[in-house]
UniProtKB/TrEMBL annotation:
It comes from the Bacteria. PROSITE patterns: ABC_TRANSPORTER_2. It comes from Melaminivora suipulveris. It is found in: Cell membrane. GO terms for cellular component: plasma membrane. GO terms for molecular function: ATP binding; ATP hydrolysis activity; branched-chain amino acid transmembrane transporter activity. The lineage of its organism: Bacteria, Pseudomonadati, Pseudomonadota, Betaproteobacteria, Burkholderiales. Keywords: ATP-binding, Cell membrane, Hydrolase, Membrane, Nucleotide-binding, Transmembrane, Transmembrane helix, Transport. The chain crosses the membrane at residues 22-40, 46-67, 79-103, 109-132, 139-156, 186-206, 236-254, 274-298, 305-329. InterPro entries: AAA+_ATPase (IPR003593), ABC_AA/LPS_Transport (IPR051120), ABC_transp_permease (IPR001851), ABC_transporter-like_ATP-bd (IPR003439), BCA_ABC_TP_C (IPR032823), LivM-like (IPR043428), P-loop_NTPase (IPR027417). The keyword Membrane applies. Residues 375-620 form the ABC transporter domain. It is a multi-pass membrane protein. This is Metal-dependent hydrolase.
Length: 635
């Protein structure tokens, strides 16, 4: 590898250097689990039941944390999936028809068969619903979740083989070999164990390549697809996972209650689950447990206290509960978990990277030889209604050159970038990447062939570290999926991804910032994060949209040095930039756009003396100084 570029002049942030606290967050989690184990046999019966319900609700809220807080999708319909899990096991354990079908299955195994049935039915319903509704965006998606939540709820009540509105009684208790799980105390242990295992699995998922892909969904489709992520597939998988968690909760619920009817699976309860996730802190797994605890206890206490306080019966608790939710959300806009984390932060030692697994290997592409035609756009036209944003543009980029695309505001540069990176399709014309026709293909296919890009308006995960953001750029160079991530079988690959990300961060001069939230950096530095992220994909062709905007003079020099170095390594670079001094000193060739059409193409010296270009930039003045970006006569 070649020498790193001059580091950007910067101070290491305080958060990255401080070291204090007593215990790590991992130790705190272990202490909580230990306390639960010790206290469980001593807790009063009623507390055990309430704690078990909290765990059941937490399981559903966990799915919503993933779906809403992490993936950016809102669902009001999760209670229906709880119902599917509950009804599946109720039917499998009690129906004469099921008894006939599954006569070979011993009675103690029927609940486990019910679990498999519930998971299978949930999987099918969620996959089908997800594939249809998750393409919707804005308020249409929540509305769709309300629609199918209601449909499933009414389906439960109208199916006579599910007992109609009366429901199904006589559900047997769960049994494990040698263990009687009839009592709430015994079953509660199972419920909490399932919850803690689920948290561990999801924590692992989020701390992985696939977790970063899931988090990227929240920023919208464009950035994630440009990193090579199939966003539709990820959204559907996330939706199915959240539904499966709800179904497991329903299964446990049915064997705890020993009867089911449609009421607990209605839309109100779906809204309550969403409250739990949001009130707890919708981006945090433990926020689900906190939210479920707060809301369950609040409802419980309101039911006890309000009749005493108000001296009568009525649904006062629902009214007061609603008002309290408004206050809580107003006070804790991000949920309660982030606030709790902030208050208790001094107790905890900062999390340090402790990757002991030897790094595995990432895919490496064979870079094309210098001079190879990387991208060839011919007669590319893009119309937005009557507006022609790109008018029959021809442009190519070869390996080992820096090609600049310049033009006044609104000339069509970003539109062209979107055409040649698969974000948008040209109305007419052809685009080839490494000789492959690309028209109509999604951005992830462009990324797969070796194109990486940055954005005019920075698109990063502001709350995640610079390291995680940059590692996202190497998504396509690794392969471990969801299951391997959950079971932590991806550690060697993950170590390699993070090592590669750190290497690119150092190379771009952002080393001291690797572990701080990317959103805390200045805008110019965030642009450099995007460049490091693009480089992590080991591209053959790099598209940079205004990379020098917001940088100071020394930072621009460091960036120019880095780009020159990349060119010498054989990368092809296409750059849109308004800083003419930067462009003229760096580019090998320049294409100039005006009103969507190419008005000049050639080396910088030729462009600087091109009268049409001068006219475009200055409206006729002929003494524009490209080296200093100034109009001589006007200065
Ligand atoms: N999605 C869209 N729908 C309608 N018009 C659009 C759309 N995107 C861009 N345009 C229009 O196309 C023209 C070119 O816009 P574009 O953003 O590509 O220019 P630009 O050269 O990148 O400008 P700037 O340097 O200011 O970023 C502008 O008139 C813009 O308003």
């Amino acid at each position: 590898m070649s020498t790193p570029a001059q580091p950007l002049p910067a101070q290491a942030p305080a958060a990255a250097t401080g070291a204090r606290g007593w215990i790590t967050r991992g130790q705190a989690t272990c202490a909580f689990v230990l306390a639960l184990i010790v206290a469980w046999p001593l807790l009063p019966d009623f507390t055990v039941v309430v704690a078990s319900y909290i765990a059941l609700y937490s399981l559903v809220a966990l799915g919503l944390v993933l779906l809403t807080g992490v993936g950016g999708m809102t669902s009001f319909g999760q209670a229906a999936f709880v119902g599917v899990g509950a009804y599946a096991t109720a039917w499998a354990c009690t129906s004469p028809q099921a008894a006939a079908w599954f006569s070979a299955v011993p009675a103690p195994l029927l609940p486990w068969l019910g679990l498999l049935l519930g998971l299978a039915v949930t999987f099918l319903i969620a996959w089908g619903l997800g594939a249809v509704t998750l393409r919707l965006s804005g308020h249409y998606l929540p509305l769709a979740t309300i629609a199918w939540g209601l449909s499933l709820y009414y389906l439960f009540g109208n199916m006579q083989f599910l007992g109609g509105q009366t429901g199904i009684t006589g559900i047997p208790p769960l049994r494990l070999p040698g263990l009687d799980l009839t009592s709430p105390r015994a079953l509660g242990v199972v419920v909490w164990t399932v919850l803690l295992v689920a948290i561990w699995l999801l924590h692992n998922l989020l701390d992985s390549r696939e977790g970063r892909a899931v988090r990227s969904l929240k920023t919208g489709q464009v950035m994630a697809e440009s990193m090579g992520i199939d966003t539709t597939r990820q959204r559907v998988k996330l939706f199915v996972l959240a539904a499966l968690l709800a179904a497991v909760s329903g299964w446990l619920y049915a064997h705890m209650q020993r009867f089911v009817n449609p009421t607990p699976f209605n839309l109100n309860i779906g809204i309550e689950f969403l409250f739990m996730a949001v009130v707890g802190g919708s981006g945090h797994l433990w926020g689900a447990v906190l939210g479920a605890t707060v809301i369950t206890l609040l409802k419980e206490k309101l039911q006890d206290w309000l009749p005493l306080l108000l001296g009568g019966s009525g649904n006062f608790e629902t009214i007061v509960f609603g008002l309290m939710m408004v206050l809580v959300l107003q006070r804790f806009a991000q949920g309660m978990w982030p606030t709790l984390s902030r208050i208790t932060a001094p107790l905890f030692k900062p999390t340090t990277a402790r990757r002991t697994t030897p790094a595995g290997r990432l895919d490496r592409r064979q870079l094309p030889a210098v001079g190879t035609r990387l991208m060839d756009a011919r007669a590319v036209t893009k119309r937005f209604g009557g507006l022609v944003a790109n008018d029959s543009v021809d442009l190519h980029v070869d390996a080992g050159e820096v090609h600049a695309l310049i033009g006044p505001n609104g000339a069509g540069k970003s539109t062209f970038f979107n055409m040649i990176s698969g974000v948008d399709d040209p109305t007419e014309g052809s685009i080839a990447l490494l000789s492959q026709p690309m028209a109509g293909k999604p951005s992830r296919e462009f990324a797969r062939l070796g194109l990486s890009r940055t954005f005019q308006h920075v698109r990063i995960l502001g709350q995640r570290s610079v390291l995680e953001n940059v590692a996202l750029g190497a998504h396509l160079r690794a392969h471990r999926g969801w299951l391997a991530s959950m079971l932590r079988l991806d550690r060697a690959e993950e170590a390699a991804l993070l090592a590669e990300a750190r290497r690119q961060i150092e190379r771009c001069g952002l080393g001291p910032f690797a572990d701080v939230p990317a959103g805390s950096l200045a805008l110019g530095q965030q642009r450099i994060v995007e460049i490091a992220r693009a480089l992590a994909g080991q591209p053959a062709l790099l598209l940079l949209d205004e990379p020098a905007a917001g940088l100071r003079h020394l930072e621009k020099q460091a960036l120019a040095q880095l780009l020159a170095q990349l060119r010498s390594e054989g990368l092809g670079i296409l750059i849109v930039e308004h800083d003419m001094e930067f462009v003229m000193n760096l580019a090998d060739r320049i294409t100039v756009l005006e009103f969507g059409a190419v008005i000049a193409e050639g080396p910088p010296a030729e462009i600087q003396s091109n009268q049409r270009v001068l006219d475009a930039y200055l409206g006729g003045a002929d003494d524009f100084d490209f080296a200093s970006d100034e109009k001589g006569s006007a200065a």
